[in-house]
Prior knowledge:
- By secondary structure, the protein is α/β, with parallel strands linked by helices.
- 44% of the residues lie in helices and 17% in strands.
- The strands form two sheets. Strands 4-3-1-2-9-10-11 form a seven-stranded mixed β-sheet, sandwiched between helices.
Amino acid sequence: MRNLQPTQPIGIFDSGVGGLTVARLIFSCFPAQEIIYFGDTAHVPYGSRSPQELIRFGDQIVSFLINLGVKIVIAACNTSSSVSLPFLQEKYDIPILGMVEPGVKAALQATRNKKVGVIATEATVNSGAYPRTMRFFDQEVEVFMQACPRFVPLVEAGKIKSPEARAAAAAYLKPLQKAKIDTLVLGCTHYPFLAPVIAEVLGPGVKLVDPAEETVKELATLLAEEEEAKNESTRPEHRFFASGAADSFYTIGRQFLGDLLFTVEQVSLNEEKKLPY
């Protein structure tokens, strides 16, 4: 594995804007750390994609990020983490962090009745990654999976507090409420943007687990091992790329990132053309 350098950026990728939940945490915890973010908005949502497609997309994106000099890649997408992460970790010689195992460990620590719900994309549900990983650590845990295909399009459209979001949450969460879960894993990085609506539907008796928070803790361990400083006088220059329209990514990203100044470049990984926005 390569020697990591403090000045190298961290790469983050997701099917769209969902991975900004991870980016925001990194901005907060490591304000001097440069981020390169890739949102594969030309292919969003990932949930209905085949494993072959997800592996191909992940391979192209990680290669792109490595060519830009990143030292660590975070697959800030539970769908990619569930399907393509083993391939990517095998192929590339830099640390590639996923979302599933950190989320599983946090959920197992949080649950009291060993009834854990996971909401995720269809591809993540079909992969079986969450139940398989949970039972590896605790064979007594009951895992209740629920695909939520409407959630990602709602977040990508910025409709995180809309009546449509509340209706979708009520419908998707009803089976998990019947199962009497006490812990819910937000098994897609888009879903924390809907956390207030989800919490309102479930009530205070259910603990929400955001795998992004746990993944950033793993990142902190890697950065500590490299003896990197958290705070420096220089301001990092973050770079954002999207495979789809840059203007729509910018509009939604501005809603989620607040006062952070940033631009977005549209990139086709096949044609390698960049269109700055």
